[in-house]
Protein: Tripartite motif containing 9
Amino acid sequence: MEEMEEELKCPVCGSFYREPIILPCSHNICQACARNILVQTPESESPQSRRASGSGVSDYDYLDLDKMSLYSEADSGYGSYGGFASAPTTPCQKSPNGVRVFPPAMPPPATHLSPALAPVPRNSCITCPQCHRSLILDDRGLRGFPKNRVLEGVIDRYQQSKAAALKCQLCEKAPKEATVMCEQCDVFYCDPCRLRCHPPRGPLAKHRLVPPAQGRVSRRLSPRKVSTCTDHELENHSMYCVQCKMPVCYQCLEEGKHSSHEVKALGAMWKLHKSQLSQALNGLSDRAKEAKEFLVQLRNMVQQIQENSVEFEACLVAQCDALIDALNRRKAQLLARVNKEHEHKLKVVRDQISHCTVKLRQTTGLMEYCLEVIKENDPSGFLQISDALIRRVHLTEDQWGKGTLTPRMTTDFDLSLDNSPLLQSIHQLDFVQMKASSPVPATPILQLEECCTHNNSATLSWKQPPLSTVPAEGYILELDDGNGGQFREVYVGKETMCTVDGLHFNSTYNARIKAFNKTGVSQYSKTLVLQTSEGKALQQYPSERELRGI
Structure:
Protein backbone atom coordinates (compact mmCIF):
# COMPACT_ATOMS: atom_id res chain seq x y z
CA MET A 1 0.00 0.00 0.00
CA GLU A 2 2.86 2.42 0.75
CA GLU A 3 4.10 2.19 -2.84
CA MET A 4 0.73 3.51 -4.03
CA GLU A 5 1.07 6.76 -2.07
CA GLU A 6 2.55 8.77 -4.96
CA GLU A 7 -0.54 7.96 -7.05
CA LEU A 8 -2.69 9.68 -4.41
CA LYS A 9 -0.82 12.99 -4.21
CA CYS A 10 -1.56 16.19 -6.12
CA PRO A 11 1.23 17.17 -8.57
CA VAL A 12 0.87 20.83 -7.53
CA CYS A 13 0.73 20.86 -3.71
CA GLY A 14 2.35 17.45 -3.15
CA SER A 15 -0.29 16.49 -0.56
CA PHE A 16 -3.11 13.98 -0.76
CA TYR A 17 -5.81 15.11 -3.18
CA ARG A 18 -8.55 17.26 -1.64
CA GLU A 19 -11.74 17.42 -3.69
CA PRO A 20 -9.94 16.19 -6.83
CA ILE A 21 -11.32 17.02 -10.27
CA ILE A 22 -10.59 15.22 -13.53
CA LEU A 23 -9.07 17.34 -16.31
CA PRO A 24 -9.98 16.41 -19.91
CA CYS A 25 -6.45 14.95 -20.30
CA SER A 26 -7.41 12.32 -17.63
CA HIS A 27 -5.03 13.74 -15.00
CA ASN A 28 -6.26 14.80 -11.55
CA ILE A 29 -5.71 17.96 -9.55
CA CYS A 30 -7.06 19.43 -6.31
CA GLN A 31 -9.91 21.84 -6.85
CA ALA A 32 -8.11 24.57 -4.87
CA CYS A 33 -4.85 23.95 -6.74
CA ALA A 34 -6.68 24.18 -10.08
CA ARG A 35 -7.92 27.63 -9.14
CA ASN A 36 -4.44 28.70 -8.05
CA ILE A 37 -2.86 27.94 -11.43
CA LEU A 38 -5.51 29.64 -13.59
CA VAL A 39 -4.09 32.06 -16.15
CA GLN A 40 -5.99 34.69 -18.15
CA THR A 41 -5.85 34.36 -21.95
CA PRO A 42 -5.88 37.21 -24.48
CA GLU A 43 -9.34 38.53 -25.28
CA SER A 44 -8.80 37.91 -28.99
CA GLU A 45 -8.22 34.19 -28.37
CA SER A 46 -11.20 33.54 -26.09
CA PRO A 47 -14.04 31.23 -27.11
CA GLN A 48 -16.50 34.16 -27.09
CA SER A 49 -14.42 36.16 -29.56
CA ARG A 50 -14.04 33.12 -31.82
CA ARG A 51 -17.82 32.57 -31.82
CA ALA A 52 -18.35 36.25 -32.55
CA SER A 53 -16.05 35.99 -35.56
CA GLY A 54 -18.14 33.14 -36.96
CA SER A 55 -15.70 30.31 -36.38
CA GLY A 56 -18.53 28.12 -35.12
CA VAL A 57 -16.77 26.61 -32.12
CA SER A 58 -19.14 24.56 -29.96
CA ASP A 59 -19.56 25.08 -26.21
CA TYR A 60 -18.57 21.46 -25.74
CA ASP A 61 -15.35 21.51 -27.75
CA TYR A 62 -13.45 21.32 -24.47
CA LEU A 63 -14.15 17.59 -24.56
CA ASP A 64 -11.87 17.17 -27.58
CA LEU A 65 -8.34 16.68 -26.34
CA ASP A 66 -6.76 17.88 -29.59
CA LYS A 67 -8.76 21.12 -29.57
CA MET A 68 -7.74 21.88 -26.02
CA SER A 69 -4.08 22.50 -26.81
CA LEU A 70 -4.78 25.91 -28.41
CA TYR A 71 -2.28 27.41 -26.04
CA SER A 72 0.27 24.64 -25.77
CA GLU A 73 3.95 25.49 -25.55
CA ALA A 74 4.60 24.32 -29.11
CA ASP A 75 2.23 26.64 -31.00
CA SER A 76 1.54 29.76 -28.94
CA GLY A 77 4.62 30.77 -27.04
CA TYR A 78 3.10 30.32 -23.63
CA GLY A 79 2.01 27.35 -21.54
CA SER A 80 3.06 25.72 -18.34
CA TYR A 81 6.58 27.15 -18.34
CA GLY A 82 6.16 30.75 -19.35
CA GLY A 83 3.84 33.69 -19.90
CA PHE A 84 2.09 35.01 -23.03
CA ALA A 85 4.14 35.42 -26.17
CA SER A 86 3.51 39.17 -26.23
CA ALA A 87 3.94 39.73 -22.49
CA PRO A 88 6.80 39.24 -20.06
CA THR A 89 7.03 35.72 -18.75
CA THR A 90 5.69 34.96 -15.31
CA PRO A 91 8.11 33.23 -12.92
CA CYS A 92 7.24 29.58 -12.38
CA GLN A 93 6.84 27.91 -9.03
CA LYS A 94 7.80 24.33 -8.19
CA SER A 95 5.50 22.04 -6.22
CA PRO A 96 6.86 19.67 -3.53
CA ASN A 97 7.09 16.83 -6.06
CA GLY A 98 9.04 18.83 -8.63
CA VAL A 99 6.24 19.87 -11.06
CA ARG A 100 6.57 23.47 -12.29
CA VAL A 101 3.31 25.44 -12.16
CA PHE A 102 2.12 29.01 -12.65
CA PRO A 103 1.30 31.32 -9.77
CA PRO A 104 -2.22 32.81 -9.98
CA ALA A 105 -2.62 35.28 -12.80
CA MET A 106 -4.31 37.73 -10.39
CA PRO A 107 -5.19 37.68 -6.68
CA PRO A 108 -8.50 35.82 -6.25
CA PRO A 109 -11.34 38.11 -5.18
CA ALA A 110 -12.52 37.85 -1.60
CA THR A 111 -15.44 35.49 -1.50
CA HIS A 112 -17.17 33.16 0.92
CA LEU A 113 -17.99 30.64 -1.80
CA SER A 114 -16.22 27.32 -2.24
CA PRO A 115 -13.41 27.17 -4.83
CA ALA A 116 -15.70 25.46 -7.32
CA LEU A 117 -18.50 28.04 -6.93
CA ALA A 118 -16.36 31.17 -6.68
CA PRO A 119 -16.35 33.28 -9.86
CA VAL A 120 -13.52 32.53 -12.28
CA PRO A 121 -11.83 35.43 -14.14
CA ARG A 122 -13.06 35.83 -17.68
CA ASN A 123 -11.08 34.04 -20.40
CA SER A 124 -9.28 31.86 -17.84
CA CYS A 125 -6.92 29.15 -19.03
CA ILE A 126 -5.68 26.16 -17.04
CA THR A 127 -2.59 24.09 -17.85
CA CYS A 128 -2.22 20.50 -16.67
CA PRO A 129 0.91 20.39 -14.46
CA GLN A 130 1.73 16.85 -15.67
CA CYS A 131 1.25 16.77 -19.45
CA HIS A 132 1.24 20.61 -19.92
CA ARG A 133 -1.91 20.56 -22.08
CA SER A 134 -3.80 23.86 -21.85
CA LEU A 135 -7.45 24.71 -22.36
CA ILE A 136 -9.76 27.69 -21.93
CA LEU A 137 -12.55 27.40 -19.37
CA ASP A 138 -16.11 28.00 -20.44
CA ASP A 139 -18.76 29.92 -18.50
CA ARG A 140 -19.10 27.12 -15.95
CA GLY A 141 -15.50 27.48 -14.85
CA LEU A 142 -14.15 24.68 -12.67
CA ARG A 143 -17.68 23.32 -12.23
CA GLY A 144 -17.39 21.93 -15.74
CA PHE A 145 -14.86 19.33 -14.59
CA PRO A 146 -16.22 16.15 -12.94
CA LYS A 147 -15.14 15.27 -9.43
CA ASN A 148 -13.13 12.08 -8.98
CA ARG A 149 -15.11 10.40 -6.22
CA VAL A 150 -13.32 7.09 -6.80
CA LEU A 151 -9.97 8.71 -6.01
CA GLU A 152 -11.45 10.31 -2.88
CA GLY A 153 -12.66 6.90 -1.72
CA VAL A 154 -9.28 5.29 -2.34
CA ILE A 155 -7.53 8.06 -0.38
CA ASP A 156 -9.95 7.64 2.52
CA ARG A 157 -9.34 3.90 2.63
CA TYR A 158 -5.59 4.40 2.36
CA GLN A 159 -5.47 6.91 5.21
CA GLN A 160 -7.66 4.73 7.38
CA SER A 161 -5.44 1.72 6.74
CA LYS A 162 -2.42 3.71 7.93
CA ALA A 163 -4.17 4.97 11.07
CA ALA A 164 -3.20 3.67 14.48
CA ALA A 165 -4.66 0.45 15.89
CA LEU A 166 -8.33 0.68 16.81
CA LYS A 167 -8.97 1.42 20.46
CA CYS A 168 -11.67 0.15 22.74
CA GLN A 169 -14.66 2.51 22.85
CA LEU A 170 -15.69 1.66 26.42
CA CYS A 171 -12.43 2.10 28.32
CA GLU A 172 -12.85 5.08 30.68
CA LYS A 173 -9.24 6.31 30.99
CA ALA A 174 -6.48 5.02 28.74
CA PRO A 175 -8.25 3.09 25.95
CA LYS A 176 -6.75 -0.32 25.29
CA GLU A 177 -6.33 -1.83 21.86
CA ALA A 178 -9.58 -3.35 20.62
CA THR A 179 -9.65 -7.09 20.05
CA VAL A 180 -13.18 -7.56 18.64
CA MET A 181 -16.05 -5.59 17.17
CA CYS A 182 -19.74 -6.42 17.48
CA GLU A 183 -21.46 -5.95 14.14
CA GLN A 184 -24.88 -5.54 15.76
CA CYS A 185 -23.74 -3.06 18.45
CA ASP A 186 -21.22 -1.39 16.14
CA VAL A 187 -18.80 -1.06 19.06
CA PHE A 188 -15.12 -2.00 19.44
CA TYR A 189 -14.23 -3.88 22.65
CA CYS A 190 -11.06 -4.85 24.43
CA ASP A 191 -11.09 -8.21 26.24
CA PRO A 192 -11.95 -6.86 29.74
CA CYS A 193 -14.73 -4.59 28.41
CA ARG A 194 -16.13 -7.39 26.24
CA LEU A 195 -16.43 -9.73 29.25
CA ARG A 196 -17.92 -6.97 31.40
CA CYS A 197 -20.27 -5.22 28.93
CA HIS A 198 -20.91 -7.82 26.23
CA PRO A 199 -21.10 -11.28 27.88
CA PRO A 200 -21.78 -14.22 25.56
CA ARG A 201 -25.16 -15.05 27.05
CA GLY A 202 -28.79 -14.05 26.70
CA PRO A 203 -29.67 -11.92 23.66
CA LEU A 204 -26.00 -10.90 23.26
CA ALA A 205 -25.04 -14.50 22.53
CA LYS A 206 -26.53 -14.13 19.04
CA HIS A 207 -24.38 -11.11 18.19
CA ARG A 208 -21.55 -11.62 15.73
CA LEU A 209 -18.07 -10.62 16.90
CA VAL A 210 -15.41 -10.01 14.24
CA PRO A 211 -11.75 -8.86 14.31
CA PRO A 212 -11.28 -5.07 14.45
CA ALA A 213 -9.79 -4.83 10.97
CA GLN A 214 -12.76 -6.68 9.46
CA GLY A 215 -15.12 -4.51 11.43
CA ARG A 216 -13.46 -1.36 10.17
CA VAL A 217 -13.92 -2.55 6.60
CA SER A 218 -17.58 -3.35 7.17
CA ARG A 219 -18.04 0.12 8.65
CA ARG A 220 -16.64 1.71 5.53
CA LEU A 221 -18.95 -0.24 3.28
CA SER A 222 -21.91 1.97 2.50
CA PRO A 223 -24.66 1.99 -0.12
CA ARG A 224 -23.45 2.88 -3.58
CA LYS A 225 -23.27 6.61 -4.16
CA VAL A 226 -25.54 7.89 -6.88
CA SER A 227 -23.66 10.30 -9.11
CA THR A 228 -25.33 13.31 -10.65
CA CYS A 229 -24.80 14.94 -14.03
CA THR A 230 -22.42 17.92 -14.10
CA ASP A 231 -24.73 19.79 -16.49
CA HIS A 232 -27.99 18.81 -14.76
CA GLU A 233 -27.26 18.52 -11.05
CA LEU A 234 -30.69 17.11 -10.23
CA GLU A 235 -30.38 14.24 -12.70
CA ASN A 236 -28.54 10.96 -12.08
CA HIS A 237 -26.22 9.35 -14.62
CA SER A 238 -28.03 6.54 -16.39
CA MET A 239 -26.21 6.03 -19.73
CA TYR A 240 -22.67 6.15 -21.10
CA CYS A 241 -21.59 7.94 -24.32
CA VAL A 242 -18.95 5.84 -26.07
CA GLN A 243 -17.64 8.69 -28.29
CA CYS A 244 -17.34 11.25 -25.47
CA LYS A 245 -16.30 8.56 -22.96
CA MET A 246 -18.40 10.01 -20.19
CA PRO A 247 -21.61 9.16 -18.27
CA VAL A 248 -24.70 11.15 -19.25
CA CYS A 249 -28.24 11.57 -17.97
CA TYR A 250 -31.48 11.23 -19.91
CA GLN A 251 -31.86 15.02 -20.09
CA CYS A 252 -28.52 15.29 -21.91
CA LEU A 253 -29.89 12.80 -24.45
CA GLU A 254 -33.17 14.69 -24.80
CA GLU A 255 -31.30 17.94 -25.47
CA GLY A 256 -29.54 16.24 -28.39
CA LYS A 257 -25.98 16.70 -27.20
CA HIS A 258 -25.21 13.07 -27.98
CA SER A 259 -27.77 12.44 -30.72
CA SER A 260 -25.27 11.03 -33.23
CA HIS A 261 -23.18 9.19 -30.65
CA GLU A 262 -23.29 5.57 -29.57
CA VAL A 263 -24.87 5.38 -26.11
CA LYS A 264 -24.85 2.27 -23.92
CA ALA A 265 -26.17 1.28 -20.52
CA LEU A 266 -24.09 2.58 -17.62
CA GLY A 267 -23.99 -0.74 -15.76
CA ALA A 268 -22.90 -2.73 -18.79
CA MET A 269 -20.03 -0.36 -19.58
CA TRP A 270 -19.03 -0.36 -15.91
CA LYS A 271 -18.67 -4.14 -15.93
CA LEU A 272 -16.91 -4.11 -19.33
CA HIS A 273 -14.27 -1.57 -18.26
CA LYS A 274 -13.71 -3.37 -14.96
CA SER A 275 -13.12 -6.57 -16.90
CA GLN A 276 -10.67 -4.84 -19.27
CA LEU A 277 -8.73 -3.32 -16.38
CA SER A 278 -8.58 -6.68 -14.60
CA GLN A 279 -7.27 -8.40 -17.73
CA ALA A 280 -4.65 -5.71 -18.21
CA LEU A 281 -3.58 -6.11 -14.58
CA ASN A 282 -3.05 -9.84 -15.09
CA GLY A 283 -0.37 -9.17 -17.69
CA LEU A 284 1.24 -6.48 -15.56
CA SER A 285 1.22 -8.81 -12.55
CA ASP A 286 3.17 -11.39 -14.55
CA ARG A 287 5.71 -8.72 -15.48
CA ALA A 288 6.06 -7.72 -11.83
CA LYS A 289 6.64 -11.36 -10.84
CA GLU A 290 9.31 -11.69 -13.52
CA ALA A 291 10.89 -8.45 -12.33
CA LYS A 292 11.12 -9.76 -8.76
CA GLU A 293 12.79 -12.94 -9.97
CA PHE A 294 15.10 -10.85 -12.14
CA LEU A 295 16.13 -8.75 -9.14
CA VAL A 296 17.02 -11.93 -7.25
CA GLN A 297 19.13 -12.99 -10.23
CA LEU A 298 20.93 -9.64 -10.30
CA ARG A 299 21.68 -9.78 -6.58
CA ASN A 300 23.09 -13.28 -7.02
CA MET A 301 25.22 -11.95 -9.86
CA VAL A 302 26.77 -9.39 -7.50
CA GLN A 303 27.86 -12.16 -5.15
CA GLN A 304 29.08 -14.32 -8.02
CA ILE A 305 31.07 -11.45 -9.53
CA GLN A 306 32.73 -10.86 -6.19
CA GLU A 307 33.58 -14.55 -5.82
CA ASN A 308 34.91 -14.76 -9.37
CA SER A 309 36.95 -11.64 -8.76
CA VAL A 310 38.59 -13.15 -5.68
CA GLU A 311 39.32 -16.39 -7.52
CA PHE A 312 40.73 -14.58 -10.54
CA GLU A 313 42.96 -12.38 -8.42
CA ALA A 314 44.33 -15.39 -6.54
CA CYS A 315 45.20 -17.17 -9.80
CA LEU A 316 46.81 -14.05 -11.16
CA VAL A 317 48.94 -13.54 -8.05
CA ALA A 318 50.06 -17.20 -8.12
CA GLN A 319 51.22 -16.88 -11.75
CA CYS A 320 52.97 -13.58 -11.16
CA ASP A 321 54.81 -14.84 -8.04
CA ALA A 322 56.30 -17.71 -10.09
CA LEU A 323 58.02 -15.29 -12.44
CA ILE A 324 61.23 -13.29 -11.91
CA ASP A 325 61.47 -9.77 -10.47
CA ALA A 326 60.73 -8.23 -13.83
CA LEU A 327 57.29 -9.84 -13.72
CA ASN A 328 56.55 -8.31 -10.30
CA ARG A 329 56.69 -4.79 -11.80
CA ARG A 330 54.07 -5.88 -14.33
CA LYS A 331 51.89 -7.57 -11.73
CA ALA A 332 50.61 -4.31 -10.24
CA GLN A 333 49.39 -3.14 -13.62
CA LEU A 334 47.57 -6.39 -14.30
CA LEU A 335 45.87 -6.35 -10.88
CA ALA A 336 44.75 -2.79 -11.50
CA ARG A 337 43.06 -3.89 -14.71
CA VAL A 338 41.30 -6.74 -12.94
CA ASN A 339 40.03 -4.41 -10.23
CA LYS A 340 38.83 -1.96 -12.85
CA GLU A 341 36.92 -4.71 -14.62
CA HIS A 342 35.53 -5.83 -11.27
CA GLU A 343 34.27 -2.34 -10.42
CA HIS A 344 32.86 -1.87 -13.89
CA LYS A 345 30.84 -5.07 -13.70
CA LEU A 346 29.57 -4.24 -10.21
CA LYS A 347 28.60 -0.72 -11.27
CA VAL A 348 26.68 -1.94 -14.31
CA VAL A 349 24.79 -4.59 -12.33
CA ARG A 350 24.07 -2.28 -9.40
CA ASP A 351 22.83 0.45 -11.73
CA GLN A 352 20.52 -2.09 -13.36
CA ILE A 353 19.29 -3.22 -9.93
CA SER A 354 18.54 0.38 -8.96
CA HIS A 355 16.76 1.08 -12.25
CA CYS A 356 14.73 -2.12 -12.09
CA THR A 357 13.84 -1.53 -8.42
CA VAL A 358 12.47 1.94 -9.16
CA LYS A 359 10.47 0.66 -12.13
CA LEU A 360 9.12 -2.25 -10.07
CA ARG A 361 8.10 0.09 -7.25
CA GLN A 362 6.21 2.27 -9.72
CA THR A 363 4.58 -0.80 -11.27
CA THR A 364 3.55 -2.18 -7.87
CA GLY A 365 2.15 1.19 -6.84
CA LEU A 366 0.08 1.38 -10.02
CA MET A 367 -1.17 -2.18 -9.50
CA GLU A 368 -2.26 -1.48 -5.91
CA TYR A 369 -3.96 1.73 -6.98
CA CYS A 370 -5.83 -0.07 -9.78
CA LEU A 371 -6.91 -2.83 -7.38
CA GLU A 372 -8.31 -0.22 -5.01
CA VAL A 373 -10.13 1.45 -7.92
CA ILE A 374 -11.67 -1.89 -8.92
CA LYS A 375 -13.14 -2.19 -5.43
CA GLU A 376 -15.06 1.05 -5.96
CA ASN A 377 -18.83 0.65 -6.22
CA ASP A 378 -19.50 3.90 -8.08
CA PRO A 379 -19.80 2.99 -11.78
CA SER A 380 -19.85 6.58 -12.96
CA GLY A 381 -16.75 7.57 -11.07
CA PHE A 382 -15.00 4.39 -12.13
CA LEU A 383 -15.74 4.90 -15.82
CA GLN A 384 -14.36 8.43 -15.65
CA ILE A 385 -10.88 7.11 -14.92
CA SER A 386 -10.94 3.53 -16.22
CA ASP A 387 -9.78 4.38 -19.76
CA ALA A 388 -6.79 6.31 -18.48
CA LEU A 389 -5.88 3.54 -16.05
CA ILE A 390 -6.14 0.88 -18.77
CA ARG A 391 -3.81 2.91 -21.01
CA ARG A 392 -1.36 3.40 -18.14
CA VAL A 393 -1.39 -0.32 -17.32
CA HIS A 394 -0.70 -1.26 -20.96
CA LEU A 395 2.01 1.40 -21.24
CA THR A 396 3.66 0.19 -18.03
CA GLU A 397 3.50 -3.41 -19.26
CA ASP A 398 5.15 -2.39 -22.54
CA GLN A 399 7.98 -0.80 -20.56
CA TRP A 400 8.80 -4.28 -19.24
CA GLY A 401 9.32 -5.42 -22.80
CA LYS A 402 12.03 -7.46 -24.41
CA GLY A 403 15.52 -6.75 -23.10
CA THR A 404 14.44 -5.02 -19.87
CA LEU A 405 14.77 -8.19 -17.82
CA THR A 406 18.09 -9.26 -19.38
CA PRO A 407 21.37 -8.77 -17.49
CA ARG A 408 23.59 -6.16 -19.09
CA MET A 409 26.72 -7.77 -17.71
CA THR A 410 28.00 -11.32 -17.43
CA THR A 411 29.49 -12.70 -14.22
CA ASP A 412 32.56 -14.13 -15.93
CA PHE A 413 35.79 -12.25 -16.36
CA ASP A 414 36.60 -12.58 -20.04
CA LEU A 415 40.32 -12.30 -19.42
CA SER A 416 43.00 -14.96 -19.60
CA LEU A 417 46.64 -14.66 -18.60
CA ASP A 418 49.12 -16.20 -21.04
CA ASN A 419 52.32 -17.10 -19.15
CA SER A 420 53.94 -19.08 -21.96
CA PRO A 421 56.27 -16.41 -23.42
CA LEU A 422 59.95 -16.55 -22.58
CA LEU A 423 61.46 -14.49 -19.79
CA GLN A 424 62.78 -11.79 -22.16
CA SER A 425 59.16 -11.19 -23.36
CA ILE A 426 57.74 -10.59 -19.92
CA HIS A 427 57.43 -6.83 -20.37
CA GLN A 428 55.04 -7.39 -23.29
CA LEU A 429 52.80 -9.63 -21.20
CA ASP A 430 49.10 -8.58 -21.34
CA PHE A 431 45.64 -9.98 -20.97
CA VAL A 432 44.00 -11.94 -23.75
CA GLN A 433 40.66 -10.21 -24.05
CA MET A 434 38.67 -13.22 -25.20
CA LYS A 435 38.60 -16.56 -23.43
CA ALA A 436 40.33 -19.12 -25.63
CA SER A 437 37.70 -21.72 -24.72
CA SER A 438 34.70 -19.78 -26.04
CA PRO A 439 35.35 -17.50 -29.05
CA VAL A 440 32.77 -16.75 -31.72
CA PRO A 441 32.62 -19.13 -34.68
CA ALA A 442 34.41 -18.40 -37.93
CA THR A 443 32.63 -16.80 -40.88
CA PRO A 444 30.83 -19.43 -43.02
CA ILE A 445 31.86 -19.98 -46.64
CA LEU A 446 29.19 -20.16 -49.36
CA GLN A 447 29.63 -23.16 -51.66
CA LEU A 448 28.94 -21.53 -55.02
CA GLU A 449 28.94 -24.82 -56.95
CA GLU A 450 25.92 -26.03 -54.94
CA CYS A 451 23.95 -22.75 -54.92
CA CYS A 452 21.33 -22.36 -57.67
CA THR A 453 17.90 -20.96 -58.55
CA HIS A 454 14.91 -22.73 -60.10
CA ASN A 455 11.82 -20.78 -61.22
CA ASN A 456 10.97 -18.66 -58.16
CA SER A 457 12.98 -20.59 -55.57
CA ALA A 458 16.64 -20.47 -54.53
CA THR A 459 18.86 -23.09 -52.89
CA LEU A 460 21.94 -22.04 -50.93
CA SER A 461 24.69 -24.17 -49.37
CA TRP A 462 27.53 -23.20 -47.03
CA LYS A 463 30.18 -24.70 -44.76
CA GLN A 464 32.60 -23.79 -42.00
CA PRO A 465 36.20 -22.89 -42.99
CA PRO A 466 38.43 -26.00 -43.14
CA LEU A 467 40.82 -24.75 -40.40
CA SER A 468 38.11 -23.57 -38.03
CA THR A 469 38.30 -25.16 -34.55
CA VAL A 470 35.31 -23.34 -33.00
CA PRO A 471 32.02 -25.19 -33.54
CA ALA A 472 28.91 -23.28 -34.62
CA GLU A 473 25.60 -23.99 -32.92
CA GLY A 474 23.61 -22.73 -35.88
CA TYR A 475 23.40 -20.44 -38.88
CA ILE A 476 21.31 -17.42 -39.88
CA LEU A 477 20.48 -16.94 -43.57
CA GLU A 478 19.36 -13.46 -44.65
CA LEU A 479 17.79 -12.36 -47.94
CA ASP A 480 16.77 -8.93 -49.19
CA ASP A 481 13.39 -8.11 -50.78
CA GLY A 482 14.59 -8.38 -54.41
CA ASN A 483 14.63 -4.61 -54.86
CA GLY A 484 17.80 -3.80 -52.97
CA GLY A 485 15.96 -3.27 -49.68
CA GLN A 486 16.81 -4.35 -46.16
CA PHE A 487 17.90 -7.90 -45.36
CA ARG A 488 15.55 -10.16 -43.39
CA GLU A 489 16.07 -13.54 -41.75
CA VAL A 490 14.66 -16.43 -43.80
CA TYR A 491 16.30 -19.36 -41.99
CA VAL A 492 17.75 -20.05 -38.52
CA GLY A 493 19.00 -23.55 -37.75
CA LYS A 494 21.82 -26.10 -37.73
CA GLU A 495 21.56 -27.25 -41.38
CA THR A 496 24.10 -26.10 -43.95
CA MET A 497 21.67 -26.03 -46.89
CA CYS A 498 18.38 -24.19 -47.33
CA THR A 499 15.83 -23.76 -50.14
CA VAL A 500 13.79 -20.55 -50.15
CA ASP A 501 10.48 -20.69 -52.05
CA GLY A 502 7.95 -18.04 -53.01
CA LEU A 503 10.37 -15.53 -54.51
CA HIS A 504 9.37 -13.09 -57.25
CA PHE A 505 10.02 -14.07 -60.85
CA ASN A 506 12.61 -12.13 -62.85
CA SER A 507 14.09 -10.57 -59.68
CA THR A 508 17.60 -10.24 -58.31
CA TYR A 509 18.12 -11.20 -54.67
CA ASN A 510 21.14 -10.71 -52.38
CA ALA A 511 21.88 -13.43 -49.81
CA ARG A 512 24.34 -13.70 -46.92
CA ILE A 513 24.97 -16.11 -44.03
CA LYS A 514 26.48 -15.91 -40.54
CA ALA A 515 27.16 -18.46 -37.78
CA PHE A 516 26.45 -18.20 -34.04
CA ASN A 517 27.14 -19.93 -30.73
CA LYS A 518 26.72 -19.06 -27.03
CA THR A 519 29.50 -16.49 -27.22
CA GLY A 520 28.09 -14.49 -30.12
CA VAL A 521 27.75 -14.33 -33.90
CA SER A 522 30.37 -14.37 -36.63
CA GLN A 523 30.89 -11.87 -39.41
CA TYR A 524 28.65 -12.06 -42.49
CA SER A 525 29.83 -14.11 -45.42
CA LYS A 526 30.32 -12.61 -48.86
CA THR A 527 27.07 -11.49 -50.49
CA LEU A 528 25.70 -13.83 -53.15
CA VAL A 529 23.56 -12.46 -56.00
CA LEU A 530 20.74 -14.76 -57.22
CA GLN A 531 18.62 -14.23 -60.35
CA THR A 532 15.21 -15.96 -60.54
CA SER A 533 13.55 -17.12 -63.79
CA GLU A 534 11.70 -14.70 -66.05
CA GLY A 535 8.18 -16.09 -65.51
CA LYS A 536 5.82 -19.07 -65.24
CA ALA A 537 5.27 -19.22 -68.98
CA LEU A 538 8.95 -19.97 -69.53
CA GLN A 539 9.24 -22.77 -67.00
CA GLN A 540 9.41 -25.45 -69.72
CA TYR A 541 12.27 -23.51 -71.37
CA PRO A 542 14.26 -22.31 -68.37
CA SER A 543 16.67 -19.45 -68.96
CA GLU A 544 20.26 -19.54 -67.92
CA ARG A 545 20.49 -18.81 -64.18
CA GLU A 546 22.84 -16.10 -63.19
CA LEU A 547 24.96 -16.94 -60.22
CA ARG A 548 27.92 -14.90 -59.17
CA GLY A 549 29.63 -14.24 -55.82
CA ILE A 550 30.56 -10.80 -54.64
Remarks:
- The chain has eleven helices and 24 strands.
